[in-house]
Structure formats: structure tokens, C-alpha cells
Design goal:
The chain is α+β, with helices and mostly antiparallel strands. It has a single domain, classed as endopeptidase fold (from Nostoc punctiforme). The chain is built from three helices and eight strands. The strands form two sheets. The chain has a six-stranded antiparallel beta sheet, with helices on one face. Strands 1-2 form a two-stranded antiparallel sheet. Helix 2 packs across helix 3. The longest helix has 17 residues. It is globular.
Length: 166
């Protein structure tokens, strides 16, 4: 009888471990219609709020800008860093004033994923998704400037935030 209980406990433990929730990646936070891509530019779905269309236009404008640490925070620069890129997009969409650092984005807006725009921030990096399309300055650690990516990125150590109404 004790052997049976031990075997049953082992089977149940295996089932529970299989059911453990996996960590989300950036692509799993959006379930709406995808943006339309034309010649490397992204366009928000027609039913998206105007702020989302403005955010996508701003992100299109900085595609392939060079990376510059500290760039995009109100000083003369020839490029953008991660927080400068996210600040630029949100500012041009009318969703924030000024700019902030990657760590500052941990308290930006509202907690959790947004319907259209989600910001992922930790003390050392920030990136965002607009309609599920990721805008990031680092594509797996290569240190490039702002680029769109459709590749999922793990978000386990990032605070997930969104602008109000988006």
C-alpha cells in the first residue's frame, strides 16, 4: 500500500510540474489584429486608437537609427538608446511628456499589458510592443539601434506596463 501511494505521489508530482505556467514572452501579450508591414514600415490596424497610429508612425521614423547611449533624452545626439527610443515613440504619440530612463519606465503608466501598447522595463533595458510588434534596440544582445522584431523575447525579469487607454 505504501508503494502504491509513493507511485501515485510521483505521478501526480509529474503532472503538476507539467502544468506549471511558463514565463510569457513579448509576443504573448497581444491578441488583436496584427499591424500591416509594407516596405519595412508598420501600420496599425484601422480600428486602433489614433494614439496607436501615431506611435507606429513615430516608431517607423526611427527605424535603423544608430544606437547611442543616452541618445534621445533632449540632448543633441546622433542616435537613440533603448529608453530614448521608447520615450520618443510615446512622446510623439501624445502618451507621455519628456523622457525617462529604462528604470523609470518600471513605474510608467499603468501596471500590466495594454490592449495595443505594452512597455517592458527593468533597471538596465526597456523595449515596447505596438500591436504585438516589438520595437527594441537590442536584438538578442547585439546593441543595435531601434528596430522592429517579430521574434519573441522573454520578459520574466521585466515590469510590464502600458499607457492609459492603450
Amino acid at each position: 500500500m505504501n508503494l502504491f501511494r509513493l507511485l501515485l505521489a510521483g505521478v501526480l508530482a509529474g503532472l503538476v510540474s507539467c502544468a506549471a505556467p511558463k514565463k510569457k514572452n513579448s509576443a504573448e501579450y497581444y491578441d488583436g489584429p496584427p499591424p500591416v508591414m509594407v516596405n519595412g514600415k508598420a501600420y496599425a490596424p484601422k480600428k486602433a486608437p489614433m494614439a496607436v497610429h501615431r506611435a507606429m508612425a513615430a516608431a517607423n521614423a526611427i527605424q535603423h537609427a544608430p544606437y547611442q547611449y543616452g541618445g534621445g533624452h533632449g540632448r543633441a545626439s546622433h542616435g537613440l538608446d533603448c529608453s530614448g527610443s521608447v520615450s520618443y515613440v510615446l512622446r510623439n504619440a501624445g502618451l507621455m511628456n519628456g523622457s525617462t530612463t529604462s528604470g523609470g519606465f518600471r513605474k510608467f503608466g499603468k501596471s500590466g499589458a495594454g490592449k495595443w501598447i505594452t512597455v517592458f522595463a527593468n533597471d538596465g533595458h526597456v523595449f515596447m510592443t505596438i500591436c504585438g510588434l516589438r520595437l527594441d534596440t537590442s536584438s538578442r544582445g547585439t546593441g543595435i539601434g531601434p528596430r522592429y522584431s517579430t521574434k519573441p523575447r522573454k520578459t520574466g525579469d521585466f515590469k510590464v506596463r502600458h499607457p492609459a487607454g492603450c
